[in-house]
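seq:
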Amino acid sequence: MKSLAAILFEQKTPLRLEEVELPKLGYGQVLVEVKVSRICGSQLGEIDGVKGPDRYLPHLLGHEGGGIVCDIGPEVTHTKPGDHVVLHWRPGAGIQASAARYRLGSKTINAGNITTFQSLTVVSENRLTVVPANVDFEVAALLADTLTTGFGVVTRNAAVQIGEGVVVIGVGGIGLGTVLGAHLAGAHPVIAVDIYDHKLAKARAFGATHTVNTRQEGLVEAVQGILGGSADAIFDGTGNPAILEQAWRLTGAKGRLVMVGVMSHDRHVSLNTQPFHYGKTLVGSEGGMSRPEVDIPRYLRMMSEGRFDPRGFVTHRCKLPEINEAIAAMRGGESIHTMIHFESL
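struct:
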């Protein structure tokens, strides 16, 4: 059995579309037909080598989507053929299976426990959460990371309280989920920061009370003017050392600065550590400490009762052959959430 897939053969180069041969299902593995996959900023980081040289090239990409289970491997118990599922990179319930290895002629194509830039994928059981069949596949893809990570950084990493002042720097993919999470958690004000007005407008639509375009005004001065002082919690999605240093200055004496964006492996930040001794914290988040098997049902219940509707997050849609153009649009700041559809749009 074969599947068309977008493959990273070399860092800092466009993805190549090839038909790969799927492996036979092993212990704890699940075959899924991917209906929708979101393109995440993390994939841009993989392409660019943000974490350093890639030891697993060539390999498949993508770690969030919505799909339907086609078949299951030995000992899989948490899902069955026909189930609609969220495909997520954070481990959930079930078996942690070995990573799948695909073939392209005589060449091995590597994959992790989940890949979604392909129409058929072999996924570890614990990277799948079953959802009702009426859940939109785009919503499933948003639940895979945007919402679970965005809400998780607010409630788990920063433990935001009602009425606390929050700043979200970078309101693209995860940042928009963070804005909504802060709004739902009762933060006030919720200040969205970006360099693109269309992203700031979207953030206002999902709970930001104030916006700051740092192409037009200074970050520190603008935020202090809104808050009348420092912030209780700041979430940085840029990974930019200069911005992190400014965010640290803006964080209150007992405040929390959460690094959501990943800094390039060859860059560094300079901070005075004295505030650590008195309660100020700086933490890096790994997916907002989300627990997909717990969080996804909760968020679906809230959606079903009208608490929020994330479908407006999606700004662009494409098919797999258009993936490099879609990635270019993300790099240029044009898109916020781009969904790859594996059927006719």
